[in-house]
């Protein structure tokens, strides 16, 4: 699975990158959200993790990334999640809005759930409802 992390915090993004890559996934990090839009020419991603603070209220960037074919799924990660921001993010196309966690196993579980959905959306959503803990490397 190819992931893009849009994150200004070098420590957190490198922490996540090292762990997730050790599980066999490929990760690219972009520090500035606007630069992510330029990746379309050379890269596409299965999942994008975007720090809410990096958006600076520019929710349009979420739909731009999806519409330009850079990523099919965008998850917003926030250290201070709230309902209003989650609803706005979903309105612009984000599939999830999660708490910025340092529990990497939990984050890996979320990534693996979306990986299963990408493989076969119809079949795997039923499997996920039956067993919400999806096994992943």
Give the low-pLDDT segments. Answer: none
Characterize the overall form. Answer: globular
**Secondary structure tally: strands:** 5
CATH topology: Rossmann fold
**What does the average pLDDT come to?**
79
Largest sheet: 5 strands, parallel
Radius of gyration: 14 Å
Distance between the termini: 11 Å
Number of contiguous helices: 7
Strand order of the largest sheet: 2-1-3-4-5
- CATH first level: Alpha Beta
Strand composition percent:
15-25%
Mind explaining what this structure looks like?
The protein has about 140 residues and is α/β, with parallel strands linked by helices. It has one domain: 3-Layer(aba) Sandwich (Rossmann fold). The protein has 7 helices and 5 strands. It has a 5-stranded parallel β-sheet, with helices on both faces. Strand 1 (about 1-5), helix 1 and strand 2 form a beta-alpha-beta unit. The longest helix is centred in the last third of the chain and has 16 residues, at about 105-120. The protein starts with a strand and ends in a 7-residue tail after the last helix.
């Amino acid at each position: 699975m190819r992931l893009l992390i849009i994150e200004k915090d070098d420590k957190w993004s490198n922490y996540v990158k090292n762990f997730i890559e050790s599980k066999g996934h490929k990760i690219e990090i972009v520090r500035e959200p606007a630069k992510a839009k330029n990746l379309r020419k050379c890269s596409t991603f299965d999942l994008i993790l975007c720090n809410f603070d990096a958006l600076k209220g520019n929710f349009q960037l979420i739909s731009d990334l999806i519409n330009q074919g850079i990523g099919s799924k965008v998850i917003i990660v926030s250290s201070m999640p709230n309902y209003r921001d989650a609803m706005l993010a979903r309105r612009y196309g984000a599939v999830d809005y999660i708490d910025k966690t340092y529990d990497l196993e939990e984050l890996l579980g979320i990534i693996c759930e979306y990986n299963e959905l990408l493989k076969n959306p119809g079949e795997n959503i039923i499997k996920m409802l039956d067993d919400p803990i999806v096994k992943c490397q």
